[in-house]
């Protein structure tokens, strides 16, 4: 009976069926006949438990399976993406125009097209941001005496992309990418508008050095294909977003909200419609609030934000003394309750790096995954990716020294997906 087949293939031992076993079961005579007795709804229930990559292969089982899997009424129930673990960090190889490399975090290293040849041709391709397997780039072209650009959002793994114009905002902006494939295949690009009216910035320079007050926001939605009108800043008149100088993360997208590290001791949060704005105060240490950065007169990347195991993490760097890093977890998202998870003085675990004539100022925290932190050491010539286990204190060099690897370093998570423009 259909229910018997469903139990055999889906819920035996309460495990997800392996696609190979599923295909083999269908291919034998008796099971194949039983499968043909299944209604489309039951077949969709079975296939909904199969990973996206395997689901694509299972389209070849029969014409009926292809029809069921491809039917618009079933696509919302079936997996439409497959997000793999962190594979490494992308960076621009400035020796060759429009060429990119990856510092691998896995062995063997992932294979990517270093020239991104699947993208439209442009004079200069600039990496801007990444989020859950998608990359945000600027595609620059020379038009008469002026440089113009389009935004490109792409998946290097699936070799899919969307091209759209900038918002034509006349002020300086900071772009961030928001994407959660578990919720929707649509993405959003946030242009944080800053007040640089009193500063002499070259018109071709979209981002001046330093930080200024946020005055507004523009949001692009891949669902509508248009930019919103400029939305007035809903945080406060004095919110300033920390600028990423060495490639550490300053933004996280989850719960449909963009989270940004501010110069002030807060995480600034806004939703994809620009209607809900809030700030999450950072934790206090030794009676004083942590900051997203040192005062503007100080140097060094001093705030890192990450999402790990569904919880927001914030790492605070104290570059004085022993160069200490404190990792905090936001246990109560709406109550704003932070818990100290780990503290480490990087002078001790990274002694091997010091022998390579690298110092803590060359070190950037680039990823947090569970109880593991990833650091990039960069001395303006070479870069080395290392990992640090919080529990054991073990430090591992994950890559050989690589040359000409300037920041930013964007996390590369292989993403297999059906489309960048499907409904939620």
UniProtKB/TrEMBL annotation:
CDD domains: F-box_AtFBW1-like (cd22157). InterPro entries: At3g26010-like, Beta-prop_At3g26010-like, F-box-like_dom_sf, F-box_dom. Residues 32-78 form the F-box domain. This is F-box domain-containing protein. It comes from Oryza glaberrima (African rice). The gene is LOC127773392.
């Amino acid at each position: 009976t259909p229910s018997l087949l469903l139990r055999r293939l889906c819920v035996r031992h309460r495990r997800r069926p392996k696609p190979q076993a599923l295909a083999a079961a269908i291919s034998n005579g008796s099971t194949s006949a039983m499968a043909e007795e299944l209604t489309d709804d039951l077949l969709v229930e079975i296939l909904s438990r199969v990973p996206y990559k395997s689901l694509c292969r299972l389209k070849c089982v029969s014409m009926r399976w292809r029809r069921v899997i491809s039917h618009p009424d079933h696509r919302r129930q079936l997996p439409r993406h497959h997000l793999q673990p962190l594979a490494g960090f992308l960076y621009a190889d400035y020796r060759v125009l429009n060429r990119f490399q990856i510092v691998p975090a896995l062995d063997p290293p992932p294979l990517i097209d270093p020239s991104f040849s699947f993208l439209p041709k442009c004079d200069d391709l600039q990496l801007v941001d990444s989020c859950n397997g998608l990359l945000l780039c600027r595609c620059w072209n020379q038009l008469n005496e002026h440089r113009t650009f389009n935004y490109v959002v792409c998946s290097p793994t699936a070799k899919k992309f969307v091209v759209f114009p900038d918002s034509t905002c006349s002020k300086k902006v900071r772009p961030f990418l928001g994407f959660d494939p578990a919720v929707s295949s649509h993405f959003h690009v946030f242009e944080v508008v800053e007040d640089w009216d009193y500063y002499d910035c070259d018109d071709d320079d979209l981002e001046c050095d330093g930080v200024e007050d946020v005055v507004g926001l523009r949001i692009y939605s891949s669902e509508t294909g248009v930019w919103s009108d400029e939305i007035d800043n809903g945080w406060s008149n004095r919110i300033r977003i920390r600028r990423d100088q060495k490639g550490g993360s300053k933004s996280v997208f989850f719960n449909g909200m963009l989270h940004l590290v501010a110069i002030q001791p807060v995480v600034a949060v806004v939703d994809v419609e620009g209607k809900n704005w809030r700030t999450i105060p950072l934790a206090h240490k030794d009676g004083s609030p942590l900051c997203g950065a040192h005062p503007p007169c100080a140097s060094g990347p001093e705030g890192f934000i990450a999402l790990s195991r569904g919880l927001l993490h914030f790492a605070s760097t104290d570059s004085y003394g022993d160069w200490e890093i404190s990792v905090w977890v936001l246990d109560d998202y709406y109550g704003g309750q932070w818990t100290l998870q780990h503290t480490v003085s990087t002078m001790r675990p990274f002694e091997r790096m010091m022998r390579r004539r690298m110092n803590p100022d060359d070190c950037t925290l680039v990823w947090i995954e569970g109880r593991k932190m990833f650091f990039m050491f960069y001395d303006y010539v070479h870069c080395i990716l290392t990992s640090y286990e919080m529990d054991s204190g073990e430090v591992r060099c994950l890559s050989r020294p690589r040359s000409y690897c300037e920041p930013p370093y964007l996390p590369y998570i292989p993403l297999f997906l059906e489309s960048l423009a499907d409904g939620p």
